[in-house]
Amino acid sequence: MVVGYKSQWKFFQCNAAKPDKHHIKSFGLVDSVTGYVLDILTYFGHNTSCNLECNPGSGIAMMVFDTLLANVGRCHHVFADRWYTTRILIDHSRSQYFTGTVQINRKYFPAELKAQPLVHMEACFHKTTDNKLLFVGCKDKKTRKQLASFLIAQRLKWWRPVVEGQSHLPSICTTST
């Protein structure tokens, strides 16, 4: 979440691509149905008040998730953008359902998803051998941009491979990741 800000402040962020060039960066836990903000965490550089009991090498994303989800029960569905999505975070937050976009060049993601060339509006699907994660790659309108989403694949009982004559159903390839 970014909050537009025009005055002086030590921790403001600057992004020339945004309509409000100067803003306050904050992390929020928001209900997707009502839009109600359940919790908010403001970015203060290295002094951001995160849960510092996480692994030191885990990164800021895991600290932010642990802090925001501390008062939330299990089995909720979390939607996040590509800044948060790392394989370490996904494996750490197995008590929550997680869906998010990913940067293709990040570590610990299937090589098949990275290397497979896609045409516009085409998708490829890969699942882990333990059936815990489903990777979906699709070509966006912009060239060379691929998106991947994560779902816990155990809940997808309706998923079945493509049979001849029914090309609208996706095929799933098992990957060793």
TrEMBL record:
Family matches, as InterPro entries: PGBD (IPR029526)
Domain (PiggyBac transposable element-derived protein): residue spans on this chain: 2-150
Record organism: Plakobranchus ocellatus
Highest rank taxon of the organism: Eukaryota
Protein name: PiggyBac transposable element-derived protein domain-containing protein
